[in-house]
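Researcher: We're teaching a course module on how sequence relates to structure. For the next exercise, students receive a sequence and then see the predicted structure as tokens, so they can try to spot secondary structure elements on their own. Here is the exercise chain.
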Amino acid sequence: MTKLIVFSNMYPSEYHPTYGIFVKNQVQLLKDAGHDVTVVAIDNPAKGAFAKLKKYAGLFVRGFFQMLKGRKSVQLTHSHYAFPTGMLSYYGKKLFNIPYVITVHGGDIDQMANKGPRIRRWTQRILKGADAVITVGEKLKQDVLQQFGVSNDKVHVLSMGVDPTVFHVMPQELARETLGISKDETMILYVGNIIRAKGLDELIEAYKQITYTKEQLSLYMIGSQKDEQYVESVKDRLNVLDNVHLINPQNQSSLAKWMSASDVFVLPSHHEGFGLVALEAMAVGVPVVGTNVGGLPYLLKDGAGILVEPHNPASLAEGIVEALDRSEERYTEAKQRIVEEHSYDTLVERLEWIYTMVGRTKKE
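Model: And here is the predicted structure for the students to work with:
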């Protein structure tokens, strides 16, 4: 059994059930495996300077208290996202000799670290000081090695995994009946934050380009609408289109039904550390179209999905049409193989091995 503290700037709550759900799922896996896990996290996605200051001040106060209280018994800390969350683990090691693990998810490397030289220096300090760095995709590993000079033997590629009890094959007709969606629709689905960086401008434009290809073509976009200004601009564009729906966040069980109901799942991101939602769509069997960025080329390799160019509505439209033409290929061996590589059993086994290696450094 490992006694550890998990820090995260994203964690679900009653009002935001999918906010950082992947962190909560991993924590639950560790608890189910018998580990003693304390979670210190932010569970409110509210934006604004004052809200951020209040959230992170609370996170740091609670985090330091837990490390102080457990300085003799806690074997390691595990921070999700390098900066600023990883500062807690960094200081925990400096002040209390508690080794730490950092999981890099993507935005902390290709966005946060580029906001200024001070943040970049802190990101490098946190990563190089870690006893182990986990990246959720191979591309992120290369970024960590090449951009921040982290030792190769400390970096491990390990996704957040997919829950097979939630994301599994379900008959499309049954899923549509449950959701009240017509069986005659040809349904395109996007799941993720409603923000520009997810490529939604390109998705809307691509949809406009292919509406003539199917009589009852529809587009559903499900996700958190935190960026009010951008959401309003999206709504203005959708007002002139038919059969386009903007839907609030859903819990994972509901998302699995939406994915099963769709004919194609689209992730048109400008950058994507791994693309966990695409893996979840693959697990239910729906054809996936994703942009050639971040971890998606590795996830959709060998025919498991269709890659298109980012920032390119025409390429995206072409990929969607190709996927719709192959919509009967829902349960391919290529997809099953990728899903099995990211199973929860594999995830826990490798995470426990990393924890064992890191935990020994405190004893030494």
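Model: If you want an answer key for the exercise: The mean pLDDT is 92. Residues 37 and 46 are 26 Å apart (CA to CA).
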